[in-house]
Amino acid sequence: MRWLGKLDPNDQDVQINLGIAAAKTIDKIDAKENFFINAVRSNVVNVVSTDCWAWFSISLALVTCVLFFAFIHSGIIIVKRISFVFSIVGAIALVVVYLFGNSALNAKKENKFAIVLLKEVKITNEPNAGATMKFALHEGTKVRIVEANSDWVLIKLDNGNEGWVKQTEVGII
After folding, report:
1. CB 99 within 8 A of CB 107
2. Would you say 142 and 117 are in contact if contact means Cβ atoms under 8 Å apart?
3. Which of the 8 DSSP states describes residue 30?
């Protein structure tokens, strides 16, 4: 259901349904405090899609090349100075936009989530049936997938807790 909110965050029906689903989850997990700079970077990176970051990079590269070309071939001193300054600013902006786009792409690739499917799932400290139980989660809890091997998945909660769960007990979204 959370993916609906990503598709159309302004749809009131989706927001109401997400609120109802969140209210029905048994496990209330408080998110760990995010460092200020990481929160700002995350908000800036997620403003537009990865495709938009790519188009911004391409556009800035073209504009920077045109400005640099004007700097090289212009005979007028004021045009040379202005085009030089703006080509430097464009090059710096190009690097920043590229880094934001790359960060958005990495976040898109790395963020894999799952939902607990069973009424109660035991989270263990190792990926085997005889391992010690660390904590339990209940149906509907959203978890981040950190690593997966044959039958087990290493999950991480928003509060920082990690543990292993059988792959059949969670649904990957």
Report:
1. no
2. no
3. P
Cβ atoms within 10 Å, residue 152: 20
Work out the burial of residue 20: count CB atoms within 10 Å of its CB; fewer than 13 is exposed, 13-18 middle, 19 or more buried: exposed
DSSP lists the bridge partners of residue 133 as 124
Cβ pair 87, 31 in contact under 8 A: no
Can you tell me the distance from the alpha carbon of 93 to that of 56, in angstroms, rounded to the nearest whole number? 10
pLDDT digits (tens, 9 = 90+) for 59-96: 999 999 999 999 999 999 999 999 999 999 999 999 99
129: which 2 tokens? 């049936």
Q: Which residue has the tokens 């998945």?
A: 153
Find, among 154, 151, 48, 171, the residue nearest to 101 by Cα. 48
What is d(CA 171, CA 173) in angstroms, rounded to the nearest whole number?
Answer: 6
- Sign, Cα dihedral of 107, 112, 115, 116: negative
123 CB-near residues (< 8 Å, 6+ apart): 133, 134, 135, 136, 137, 155, 161, 163, 164, 165
CATH number of the domain located at residue range(s) 113-172 in this protein: 2.30.30.40
Q: Is the pTM of this model over 0.70?
A: no
CA 60/CA 161 separation, integer angstroms: 42
The answer to whether 155 touches 165, Cβ cutoff 8 Å, is: yes
